[in-house]
Amino acid sequence: MQNLHQVKIPRRLSKFSGAKSNGFVLFSSLNGQTGETRPPSVEATTSVNNVSDVQVQSSIWNWRGYSIRYQHAGNSGPALVLIHGFGANSDHWRKNLPVLSKSHRVYSIDLIGYGYSDKPNPRQFGETLFYTFETWATQLNDFCTDVVKGEAFFICNSIGGLVGLQAAVMEPQLCKGIMLLNISLRMLHITKQPWYGRPLIKSFQNLLRNTAVGKYFFKTVATPQSVRNILSQCYHDTSQVTEELVQKILLPGLEPGAVDVFLEFICYSGGPLPEELLPQLKCPVLIGWGDKDPWEPIELGREYGKFDSVEDFVDEAPDLVNPLIESFVARHAALPASISTTT
């Protein structure tokens, strides 16, 4: 494996598999993924879903020495890259891929550190942070270049929205447009913490990251019952919290290295904010938000709708997300990425 010094870093849906049924936000406490076996190479693929004769395949992409799992479906139309949130994975989009792939080339990717992608130990990079939005944005842009073979629309949930925004700022020619579904407000960012609370928050983060407390905490939530309890808080319709869903969320969190990634990210209070990235975009943005989201208040999210790059802020139900994606892509697919504008 390469270290960070060798990896050069440039300067929540329709019947979500792991999302709240009363909003768009993805459950974001553990790495979520299926228990399927990894394909041995990018050429070798395994069918993981088949809905209405649409086959969804799983493949491995070698990114700078790391194995990255992604899923894909569809052979024609504009390219869409679906980007999951914290603790999630490409299976988050398992019920969107078959529908969207009927008229699009659709990809969902496991960000490095999540799902069944490699999880390099963050401590091997010394004082240099590895699990950052710049790292993930670089991964996303390289994915578009190497696998998608060109420009794409980014469909993002939670912290995946920061990844998509950062990627579009870094390589604007690759992004045709971005749809943000309950983008993370990053309320633990250092600039959003009250001055009097910063020392306490920092001490707590250090306690989690540098002592056995963090691993004990992770162990208490990485159980079937704990995952089920958390998902039951996320779903308005608790009948959707099936054993299959619990396992998709739980299993990757039990893989070697998952706990270190989890603890590293919850201690990450730096990096960009949505309000810093949105003004820099050269592509159109559509924001969707579930009004019953208990973690990311819609009142704060609406402030993002005021940026010039945002063409609309939509408060919709999860079962309308696929049509929203399709109409957004149709409006902008004909325009080159470099000149795509809001309408």
TrEMBL record:
It comes from Malus baccata. SUPFAM superfamilies: alpha/beta-Hydrolases. This is AB hydrolase-1 domain-containing protein. Residues 78-300 form the AB hydrolase-1 domain. It comes from the Eukaryota. It holds the Pfam family Abhydrolase_1.
